[in-house]
Amino acid sequence: MSHATDIKTLASWMCSDFSNQEQAFENPPFYAHIRVCIRPLPLTNFPEPSLFLEQAYDYALNQPYRVRVLKFNIVHERIELENYKLKEQEAFLGAARDVEKLKKITPDDIELMQGCDMLIDWTGHSFKGVVKPGKNCRVIRNGKETYLDNSFEIDEHQLISLDRGYDPVTNELVWGSVAGAFHFKRRQSFADEVEF
Ligand code: CYC
Questions:
Q1: Which of left, alpha, beta for 163 (phi over 0: left; psi -120 to 50: alpha)?
Q2: Chain-centre distance of CA 193, in angstroms?
Q3: 16: which of 42, 155, 186, 194 fits an S-S bond (Cβ 3.0–4.6 Å)?
Q4: For residue 23, what are the contacts with CB-CB under 8 A and spacing of at least 6?
Q5: What is the rounded CA–CA span in Å between residue 88 and residue 6?
Q6: pLDDT-derived band of residue 1, with 50, 70 and 90 as boundaries?
Q7: Going along 22-157, which residue ranges are E strands?
Q8: Is-contact 51 14, C-beta < 8 A?
């Protein structure tokens, strides 16, 4: 198997508790201290490789503000990632840090976010993901429709991520970091929980 289809390595790197503490301390006006916690979903409930992701402010770890399921597929010899919402996010808040809760999530609890699939490439030393082109991943923020433009890069040391929303008509930046990408370091790895 080539690196380009190596879902196991990608998932092993992604399944971690990440923090951008250094960046937040160095540049507090631009970067909040954020934690991203990613755990594999058990194969018994999700036979296709799937991860659970929670994003939270470090000071409110127990109230994550973004919860998603990421499902991997191999399409044309490369990895693609589907992005899912939880239908009842409240019911599963904290599951990234509570394996018993994680086991209760089933495919019936999630809903595909249309247009938000991501293409993932092997760079030679890392994986790099971008949302499929076409401005199709629509995100409503403060009542305003935007399209997502993003990229993330991950290796055995860090997760670098930049997610931004733009106005579909003027292409102006509406939300997201004005100071550049978030740099997350791994605090803890959950690679040993990856079953696929
Ligand atoms: C939005 N981030 C999005 C969306 C996708 C991703 C598909 C639009 C739809 C949605 O709301 O889910 C996808 N971004 C990703 C993926 C990764 C990534 C798969 C790899 C882990 O970086 N999102 C993150 C970062 C973090 C972030 C770690 C940087 C601080 O996963 C921020 N993404 C972020 C925000 C939004 C977003 C704030 C807008 C959500 C909203 O306002 O509803």
A1: beta
A2: 17
A3: 186
A4: 31, 182, 183
A5: 31
A6: confident
A7: 34-40, 50-57, 66-75, 78-86, 110-112, 118-122, 127-131, 138-141, 144-154
A8: yes
pLDDT digits (tens, 9 = 90+) for 42-75: 999 999 999 999 999 999 999 999 999 999 999 9
**66 C-beta closer than 6 A to ligand 1:** yes
CA angle 150, 177, 18 (to 5 degrees): 75
Check pocket membership of 151 for ligand 1, CB cut-off 6 A: no
DSSP string of 91-107, one letter each residue: GGTTGGG-HHHHTT--G
Q: State in Å: Cα 18 to ligand 1 middle.
A: 14
| Pocket flag, ligand 1, residue 117 (CB < 6 Å) | no
List Cα–Cα distances, 55 to 20, 62, 63, 184, in angstroms: 12, 10, 9, 12
What's the pTM value of the predicted model, to 2 decimals?
Answer: 0.96
Is there an atom of ligand 1 within 6 Å of 24 CB?
no
Instruction: Report how far apart, in Å, the C-alpha atoms of 135 and of each of 111, 117, 181 are.
Output: 20, 11, 20
The gap between the terminal CA atoms of the chain, to the nearest Å, is: 14
> What does each C-alpha distance from 120 to 11, 81, 108, 153 come to in angstroms?
12, 7, 26, 9
